[in-house]
Amino acid sequence: MHLARIPLGLAVLLAGCGSSDPSTNALPASDASDVGLPPSDAGADGRDDSSTLDTAPPIPFPALTPDLPRLVKRASVVLPSPTFVTVTYSDNTNVDRLEAFADQLGDSAYWRETTSEYGISPAKSGPANHVRLTDEPPARIGLRGEADDETVLMTALVHSGKLPTPEGAVYVIYVSPKTKNVSAIGLPHHASANIDGKSIRYAIIPAGSADRTQDVAHELVEVATDPDLGHGYAYLDRTLMAWNTLFGGATEAADLCQWEPTAEYQDKEPGFEFYVQRSWSNAAADANHYPCVPAPATPFFNVTVPDSVKGITIAAGESQVVELYGYSFAARTDWNLHVVEGNAMIDGLWTDVGHLHLDLDVDQLNNGVVAHLTIGVKAAGNYHTELVTVVSSTAEEKHFYPILVLTP
Questions:
Q1: Of these four, 99, 177, 202, 403, which has the most CB atoms within 10 Å of its CB?
Q2: Per the domain annotation, does 124 fall within a domain?
Q3: Which residues of the chain have pLDDT under 70?
Q4: What's the pTM?
C-alpha cells in the first residue's frame, strides 16, 4: 500500500522543535524513494557517489507539531499541600492497604510526576490521619442536589469531632458496603462543601471501587489540581472546540487520560507498588512527549489536522478532503487507522449521527505520512455540528483525534 509522506519542507517548517539526531531521525533505506532521494549507488559510472549527493534533511520526530489539548484553570485554586485523611467503616475490607496507599502516595514519584507542574507539593498522611469509624453507616448516599445528599454525611462527620483537621485536608471516604449508593452516577468522585464557613474537600469511594486504587489515585490527583470543582485545572483551552466536544466536559487532569487503554497500570516504584492511573501533563505535551504521565515505554502516536480545532465548514450536499498528518514521538511500526462518525472514545456521548459519508484512503499510518479523509455531508444534523473521531490504534494502544464538521 502506498502512503504519501509529508513534504520535507513542510515537516521541517512545522516541527522545528523536533529531534535533530540523525541516528534517530533517519528514514529506513526502503523509504528513500518516498522522499525523492536517489539510491546510494546512483552514480552514472556505477560508482557509489553517495558522498557527493545533496541529501534532504531527515523527517523529525514528531514530523510536525501536534495539535494536543492544553489543560487550563479558571482561577488560581489548587491545593498546594494536601493531607490525605483515610476514613473507613468497620465493614470495609483491606483497611490496612487503603491506609497504606494514602500514606505512600504523597511521597511517590507517581505523585510528583502527575501534580508538581501544577504547583502541588508532596502530600502528607500517616497514622494520625487514619479514621476507623465504628458508627452505623448511612443507609443511603447520593450526589449533591440528589436525595440523601452526600453533604449531609460530610456535615455529620465534621460535627462528630472524629475527623482530624490538618491544613489542606482531603477526606477520602470509603463508603460502607451496607450503604446504598443512590447517585445517578455511582462512581468515585471528588467534591467540596462549605460546612460552617469552611471549604471541606473530599473524595467519595463507593464500596465496589474500594480495591481499585487506580480510581482513588484518579480522584486524589484531581482534588489537588481542582479542589473546588471548576475553579482549578478543570478546562481545556476554549478555542479547542473539537477537543472539548470529544471529552464532553470531563476535562480534569486524570479525566483526559482515563480513556487510554494503557491508562491504568501497576506502579513498580519501591515502597509504592499500587495500581494507579496516568494523568495529563501540559509540560509533557509541550515537550512532544507522551502527554499522559508517567509515560509508558512505547512512543506516543496519533494524527493531527492543522488549523481544524475550531471546526471545518462543509455545506449539506458537498464534500471536502481533509489531510490527516501522522506523527509519533519516536520511530515505531505502522499503526492502524479508521474513522467513526460520532464519539468513538466515549460511548453514548454523541448520538446524532448518520449525516456524513466518510471515505479514508489508507488504513495504516506512520510518522511523516499523510492520509486523506473525504467527508461528505448528506444532511445537516440537529445541531448543525457533526463529530468525526479519527482512531489510531495498535493491539495495545488507542488514541483519538476529533474533527468538528460545521454545516451551515
A1: 202
A2: yes
A3: 1-56, 144-148, 182-185
A4: 0.84
